[in-house]
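We include the pair:
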Amino acid sequence: EGPPLPGLTAPPTAKNNFAAGGVLEGIGEELVNGNAQPLDILALEETTSNPATVTPIVNGLNTFYGVAGMYSNSTYQATESSGDNAFGNGPNALVYNTKTVKLLASVPVDPPGGTSQLGGVSSGLSGEYREVMRYQFAPAGVATNASNTFFIYVSHYKSGTGTTVTTSRNGEATIVRSNMMTTLPAGARILHVGDFNTGDASEKMYGTLTAPGTNQLLDPLNPLRSLTTNWDDNSTA
C-alpha cells in the first residue's frame, strides 16, 4: 500500500490488522472526485452484540485515525421476537463518524402488533421479520433543524425464493414504507440500505418501496422503475 493520503493521519504499523482499521480504513482512502473521505456512516447487518461485533469496529477505526471518540455507535441494536439476537443471522447496528454527523435518534420499526410479530425462537419464523432500524442524523457542528436532518432505514430482508419468502420480504417492505409515510414529514430525506436479498425489480417488495406517494423511494440505478431490471446486477454495476 502507498503512503497515507493528504489530510489523513499515518496508519499504525499493523495496518492490515483489523484492530488497526483493516478494510474499513481502505474504504476511507478511496478517491472520489479526487478526494478521500473517512467513512461517515456504516450500517451493519448480522451482528451479534455491540460489545462483540460493533465495539471492535469502533475501536479499530479510532485506532487507525488516531482520534479518540472519532467513531461511535448506536447503543440500540435491532432484535427479533423475545429479544433474540442469535436468530435471523443477527441484528442490525450502526457505526458513525462523530466529526461529520451527529446521531439524533435510533428508532426500532416493528410490524403491527409489536415485537411479538417478529421472527425468532418464540414464533418459529427465524428471519421472516427482522426488526428494522431507523436512524436520524444531522451534520455535526451546526444547529439541528428540519432542513438538515436525514433518516437512514437499515433492513435485512428474508433470503431465498418461493411465495412464502417473497411475501415475507414484501411484508417487511410494507412496514418500512408505511413508517416512512405515516411518521415522517412529506419530503423527508431518506436513505434505505441493507441486505435486500432480492433479484428482480418485478418482485412485490421492490414495487412497494418505490411506488409513487409520500416519501417515495427512488432507485438511482433504475430511476424509471423498470420492472424487468435485475436489481442484483444493477447494484453491483
